[in-house]
């Protein structure tokens, strides 16, 4: 773990993968797929979403994830921040419509509050800050696993018609494109898990390439439908300001709340980084399934929040790495007992 995370710079002015995403958006703006090409791309996008969730299922070790439940207080705290506090803040932002956020941008903002936590960056920043890395691995993995079910259900309940509601068609898409491939991956893990583990680097490129295809499909549909004329630079600036407030509130709540709950320093760091983040890798495919032709505006707040959280948390992790050592007696028995690991997905 230390070998991987030491390659991460202490300051991230711009994530290279976000640059690739922005380039894909620009390509979709200049050369949107239309007609037969759009139908072909949409079919390919549907296939790669299923492939992504199959790989997520095949990589996640169910046995090791269940072992990680020994540190259940920490995991429940992260899950509560991800799927309870974040959505409540998203609902509170409804008062910003239409003065600050357009209805379409608000739908994307609320969706960002519903997606699971990220895994890879939470682990990296927790390691840099000398926090509880095994706990960050487990917490992120549990969040991703719960998000397979909770994110679509919360989106259907809170976004209503904007995300397809509880119609039979929308639920069928969720089951066929997300749940069935994920469960198939879990069932086939004993036979394919080792093969996938040996080819993690190659599969990382498959993950990222698949998401780029999903982004191009979504933004092409948005360009053809003309929905981008609804977004002005001023609106984007206001959206960034709202997201900055959201991130600041979540970082404060997870840090202060973990202290009030009696967690030791290492656990507090894991809770703060895992509980304040949102997964771009999980959110983009889900948005494509839930929002269809309107996915381009729905994923824009998530893309912006993703880059913001990397930049801010890089600074926090660097500062926390200089914290004085905490006496062993103050770390808490739960943090000392946490030793389970879960194979992380590239989120």
Protein described:
This protein is mainly alpha-helical and 347 residues long. It is built from 15 helices and no strands. Helix 6 packs across helix 14 (295-320), helix 7 packs parallel to helix 14 (295-320) and helix 11 (233-260) packs across helix 14 (295-320). It is globular and about 60 Å long. The chain starts with a helix and ends in a 10-residue tail after the last helix. Residues 1-12 and 329-347 have low confidence and may be disordered.
Q: Which features does this protein show?
A:
mainly alpha, disordered C terminus, single chain, 347 residues
User: How far apart lie the N and C ends?
Assistant: 16 Å
The unreliable regions are: 1-12, 329-347
- The topology string of helices and strands comes to HHHHHHHHHHHHHHH
Let me know the largest β-sheet: none
Q: How much of the polypeptide forms β-strand, as a percent range?
A: under 5%
Specify the number of helices. Answer: 15
Q: If you compute it from the alpha carbons, what radius of gyration comes out, rounded to the nearest whole angstrom?
A: 19 Å
Basic shape: globular
Number of strands: 0
Q: Give the fraction of residues assigned to helices.
A: over 70%
Structural class: mainly alpha
What is the arithmetic mean of pLDDT? 80
How are the secondary structure elements laid out?
Blueprint: H1 2-5, H2 16-30, H3 35-59, H4 62-67, H5 72-92, H6 103-112, H7 120-128, H8 133-159, H9 168-198, H10 200-225, H11 233-260, H12 265-275, H13 280-291, H14 295-320, H15 333-337
Helix pairs in contact: 2-10, 3-9, 3-10, 5-8, 5-11, 5-12, 6-14, 7-8, 7-12, 7-14, 8-12, 10-13, 11-12, 11-14, 13-14
């Amino acid at each position: 773990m230390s070998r991987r995370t030491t390659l991460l710079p202490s300051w991230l002015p711009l994530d290279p993968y976000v640059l690739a995403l922005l380039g894909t958006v620009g390509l979709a703006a200049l050369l949107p797929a239309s007609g037969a090409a759009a139908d072909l791309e949409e079919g390919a996008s549907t296939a790669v979403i299923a492939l992504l969730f199959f790989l997520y299922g095949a990589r996640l070790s169910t046995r090791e994830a269940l072992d990680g439940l020994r540190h259940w207080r920490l995991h429940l705290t992260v899950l509560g921040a991800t799927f309870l506090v974040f959505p409540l803040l998203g609902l509170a932002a409804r008062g910003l419509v239409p003065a600050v956020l357009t209805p379409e941008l608000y739908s994307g903002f609320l969706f960002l509050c519903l997606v699971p936590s990220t895994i890879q960056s939470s682990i990296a920043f927790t390691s840099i800050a000398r926090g509880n890395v095994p706990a960050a691995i487990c917490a992120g993995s549990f969040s991703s696993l719960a998000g397979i079910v909770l994110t679509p259900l919360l989106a259907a309940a809170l976004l209503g018609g904007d995300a397809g509601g509880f119609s039979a068609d929308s639920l069928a898409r969720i089951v066929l494109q997300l749940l069935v491939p994920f469960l198939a991956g879990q069932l086939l893990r004993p036979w394919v898990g080792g093969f996938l583990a040996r080819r993690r680097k190659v599969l990382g490129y498959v993950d990222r390439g698949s998401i780029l295809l999903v982004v191009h499909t979504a933004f092409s549909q948005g360009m053809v439908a003309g929905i981008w004329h609804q977004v002005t630079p001023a609106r984007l600036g206001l959206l960034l300001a709202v997201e900055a407030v959201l991130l600041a509130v979540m970082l404060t709540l997870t840090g202060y709340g973990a202290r009030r709950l009696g967690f030791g320093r290492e656990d507090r760091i894991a809770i703060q980084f895992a509980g304040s983040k949102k997964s771009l890798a999980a959110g983009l495919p889900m948005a494509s399934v839930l929002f269809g032709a309107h996915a381009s505006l729905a994923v824009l707040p998530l893309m912006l929040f993703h880059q913001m959280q990397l930049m801010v948390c890089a600074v926090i992790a660097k500062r926390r790495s200089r914290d004085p050592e905490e006496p062993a007696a103050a770390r808490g028995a739960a943090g000392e007992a946490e030793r389970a690991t879960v194979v992380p997905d590239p989120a």
